[in-house]
């Protein structure tokens, strides 16, 4: 009993030291980040905070009619109301949760599908690689936005259909990248050794290949999130994305576009929110690519 009690704290101490060392290294890397990267990270953190605590931050419910149509800024409505009398500030806050959340889920699903198929094609090669590559070539030959519009018109504009369609179409780009970078890893000796040991395909993908191609995939995740985010916003603006009464920045631009005629900048607020997040994400991705490339500052 005494020996085991003494062994527990003795084994936990090195673990705490390793964790503190990792946190210290991460903090040193962040301190050397350029101002653009810090700006991007702060903006992303603010968006995440807004999305998570939207019900607490919003002064009114997401879909409640609280005033007349197009109420001016000020008073009870800091940013006025929309065409139905819903509070614009509350819609913007809830839009962060809906637009960013749905875009993140779509990007995550596209990466799971695209990277799994890309790694499978790179490892197995042969006819499986040819079939998957030619199918991806066919899908990529059709403009993504037009293809998504056609499919959503046929299948309906529910959130599930929107996520699945955009994820499948966007996974073709992830497939091409993951297959390309994995092809340089599958020929390494340690991968061949794993094959000779009789390791299964999922084990080789997870333990031998994926850790060695993670940096470009993480950077691509940020870029693909921007493209997915903009695609969903464009579809919502065209009326086939996130459907009312759910708050979405793309549809908010369309619904309040008539105010531009009268010199009102209210429609520019959701458009600005879309642009700011896209720029911030690109700043962070650019810095991450520079760090993982091995180039000096």
Q: How are the SSEs ordered, and which strands pair?
A:
Layout: H1 2-31, H2 35-52, H3 54-57, H4 88-124, H5 126-140, H6 144-155, H7 159-183, H8 189-196, H9 201-209, H10 214-237, H11 249-255, H12 268-293
Helix pairs in contact: 2-4, 2-12, 4-5, 4-7, 4-10, 5-7, 6-7, 7-10, 8-9, 10-11, 10-12, 11-12
Sum this structure up briefly:
With 297 residues, the protein is mainly α.
Outline the structure in words.
The protein is an all-alpha fold and 297 residues long. It has a domain at 99-293: MetI-like fold. It is built from 12 helices and no strands. Helix 2 packs across helix 4, helix 4 (88-124) runs parallel beside helix 7 (159-183) and helix 6 packs antiparallel against helix 7. The chain is globular and about 70 Å long.
**Helix proportion of residues, in percent?**
over 70%
Work out the radius of gyration: 24 Å
Poorly predicted residue ranges: 1-6
CATH classification, class level of the domain at 99-293? Mainly Alpha
Task: Estimate what percentage of residues fall within beta strands.
Answer: under 5%
Distance between the ends? 54 Å
Give the CATH architecture of the domain at 99-293: Orthogonal Bundle
Biggest sheet record:
none
Q: Strand pairing plus helix content: what structural class?
A: mainly alpha
Helical stretch tally: 12
Overall spatial form: globular
CATH overall fold name of the domain at 99-293 = MetI-like fold
Overall pLDDT score: 85
User: Helix-strand pattern, N to C?
Assistant: HHHHHHHHHHHH
CATH superfamily of the domain at 99-293: MetI-like
For the secondary structure, the number of strands is 0
């Amino acid at each position: 009993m005494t020996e085991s009690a003494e062994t527990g704290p003795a084994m936990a101490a090195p673990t705490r030291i390793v964790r503190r060392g990792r946190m210290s290294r991460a903090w040193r890397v962040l301190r050397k980040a350029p101002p653009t990267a810090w700006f991007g990270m702060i903006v992303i953190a603010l968006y995440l905070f807004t999305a998570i605590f939207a019900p607490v931050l919003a002064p009114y419910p997401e879909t409640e009619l609280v005033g007349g149509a197009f109420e001016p800024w000020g008073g009870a409505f800091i940013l006025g109301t929309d065409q139905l009398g819903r509070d614009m500030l509350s819609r913007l806050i809830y839009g962060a949760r809906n637009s960013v959340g749905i875009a993140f889920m779509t990007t995550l699903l596209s990466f799971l599908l695209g990277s799994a198929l890309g790694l499978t094609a790179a490892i197995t090669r042969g006819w499986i690689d040819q079939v998957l590559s030619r199918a991806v070539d066919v899908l990529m030959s059709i403009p993504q936005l037009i293809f998504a519009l056609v499919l959503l018109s046929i299948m309906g504009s529910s959130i599930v259909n929107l996520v699945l369609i955009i994820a499948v179409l966007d996974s073709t780009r992830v497939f091409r990248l993951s297959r390309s970078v994995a092809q340089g890893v599958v020929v390494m000796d340690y991968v061949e050794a794993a094959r000779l040991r009789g390791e299964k395909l999922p084990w080789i993908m997870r333990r031998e290949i994926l850790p060695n191609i993670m940096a470009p995939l993480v950077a691509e995740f940020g870029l693909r999130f921007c493209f997915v985010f903009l695609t969903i916003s464009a579809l919502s603006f065209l009326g086939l994305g996130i459907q009312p009464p759910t708050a979405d920045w793309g549809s908010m631009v369309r619904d309040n576009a008539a105010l531009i005629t009268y010199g009102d900048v209210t429609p520019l607020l959701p458009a600005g929110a879309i642009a700011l997040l896209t720029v911030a994400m690109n700043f962070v991705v650019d810095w991450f690519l520079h760090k993982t490339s091995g180039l000096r500052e």
